[in-house]
Specification:
The protein is an alpha+beta fold and 224 residues long. The chain contains eight helices and six strands; from the N terminus they run H-H-E-H-H-H-E-E-E-H-E-H-E-H. Strands 1-2-6-5 form a four-stranded antiparallel beta sheet. The longest helix is centred in the middle third of the chain and has 22 residues. The two termini are 33 Å apart.
Length: 224
């Protein structure tokens, strides 16, 4: 049964030969297997249009009932970045000096992290993803959103992929609690901070910890 008369349109889809499909899948994996979380940034400028396209790519994510319950706040103002860093480091200090369990702190040792977050003022951009717990119509009435965390999580995953694809780096930063971001960025009551991502080029002397990823057999189960 066709739905073209009921608000539907024909799917636009590109199908590849099995050989081309495999080539593309391998190339995509190889590119993303090189992605790393980076905490040492350069202050080199990045063209705003690149960031805009990265965000537009993130917005292609699926969402519950297509509500698209996200908002990406882009911070370039040095004073605002400084406010974010000050507040984030205050919360992170409390985390590293009492809130985190001994096991958590032990697991973090190999990454060499602490409460200091220099990347928040060094990176040329900070993207703060906000989830919209509900929408507001033109009259200020609440409109329900669905699967908000799942939807925004998917969008952020695509955002990180788009950042890497553009040749830039990021680190997923979640200072806890993050409520200060709503205040600093003057966001409305229906928005909640979800994830903070500094974006830019890596520092010339950037280093990353030596890690390994789980093999296919460790992270997938095939039912035959």
């Amino acid at each position: 049964m066709s739905h073209t008369d009921q608000g539907f349109q024909a799917l636009t889809h590109t199908e590849y030969s099995p050989e081309e499909m495999l080539r593309r899948a391998k190339a995509f994996y190889t590119e993303h297997d090189a992605r790393r979380t980076v905490r040492m940034f350069s202050d080199r400028p990045v063209d705003r249009e690149v960031i805009e396209l990265i965000i537009k790519t993130a917005s292609t994510a699926p969402s519950g009932a297509n509500k698209q319950p996200w908002n990406f706040c882009v911070v370039t103002n040095p004073e605002v970045k400084a406010q974010i860093r000050e507040a984030a480091e205050k919360e992170e200090y409390e985390n590293y000096h009492g809130r985190m369990s001994d096991d958590w702190l032990e697991d973090l040792k190999k990454f060499g992290t602490d409460h200091l977050k220099e990347f928040l003022t060094t990176a040329p951009y900070i993207i703060v993803a906000f989830k919209q717990a509900y929408d507001l119509d033109a009259n200020g009435n609440k409109q329900k959103n669905y699967y908000v965390n799942e939807s925004v999580g998917l969008a952020c995953g695509i955002l990180i992929s788009a950042i890497h694809n553009a040749g830039l780096v990021t680190v997923t930063h979640t200072p806890s609690p993050m409520n200060f971001l709503q205040k600093v960025l003057e966001r409305p009551d229906n928005e909640r901070p979800f994830l903070l991502l500094p974006v830019g080029y890596p520092a010339g002397d950037a280093e990353v910890p030596i890690i390994s990823r789980k093999g296919l057999e460790e992270m997938s189960v095939w039912y035959k």
